[in-house]
Amino acid sequence: MNIVIVNGSPRKEGRTGKLSAIISKKYNIKTIDLSELTLPVYNGQEDQNELANIKMLRAELENADAMIVATPEYHGGMSGALKNALDFLGSKHFKDKPVALMAVSGGGKGGINALNNMRIVLRALYANVLSKQLVIDPTDFIQGGIALAEESSYLVNGLIQELKIYTQLTKKLNEEWSASNY
Ligand SMILES: Cc1cc2nc3c(=O)[nH]c(=O)nc-3n(C[C@H](O)[C@H](O)[C@H](O)COP(=O)(O)O)c2cc1C
């Protein structure tokens, strides 16, 4: 199954990128890293469709069976970088695909608003967003950010296992659906 994680942080040394790297390595999941992928501000002009980074973003997400979307919480919402990237995408990249949400907060009980914000936007893209979701705080990181504390790691694992179950289920239902139409 092809699961992709989107690092929604524009900051090269950001904690969301660190979380994405930990997950990518542990679960062998490909990362779309918005701190590396330079995208223009979406303006709806035809010429943007020809940009290599836009083509790559669209192709990777169209081919994905499921996604993990991780964002920093910035001013009570997802990052502008992530919202801008999502504006280049549409329902063909997300429709009926399971999506797990993660927010990386500054602590102090932040993160929930970014999760709710992503949930609203991804519903508009027809994604099947899982009920289970996670906020990762600065204190969840250990070893200078290259690993997660045991309890946080356990919670991340639970979310990813659930995403895998829903991805398998979706694949099976799609196969049965295609077979019944022949
Ligand atoms: C512009 C800006 C706004 C922020 N707003 C919030 C916020 O509303 N809630 C919160 O919990 N943290 C907030 N933070 C802290 C970040 O969420 C936190 O530092 C997080 O680790 C950032 O992720 P990043 O390192 O991947 O960029 C904000 C940080 C920045 C730079």
UniProtKB/TrEMBL annotation:
Coiled-coil ranges per the record? none
* Gene that this polypeptide is encoded by: azr
Family as reported in the entry's similarity comment: Belongs to the azoreductase type 2 family.
> Which InterPro entries does its entry note?
Flavoprotein-like_sf (IPR029039), FMN_Rdtase-like_dom (IPR005025), NAD(P)H-dep_reductase (IPR050712)
Name listed for the protein in its UniProt record: FMN-dependent NADPH-azoreductase
Q: Which organism is it from?
A: Gottfriedia solisilvae
GO terms for molecular function, please?
A: FMN binding; oxidoreductase activity
The record's PANTHER family line, in alphabetical order, gives: CHROMATE REDUCTASE (PTHR30543), NAD(P)H-DEPENDENT FMN REDUCTASE LOT6 (PTHR30543:SF21)
Q: Name one GO cellular component term.
A: cytosol
Q: In this protein, which residues make up the domain named NADPH-dependent FMN reductase-like?
A: 1-137
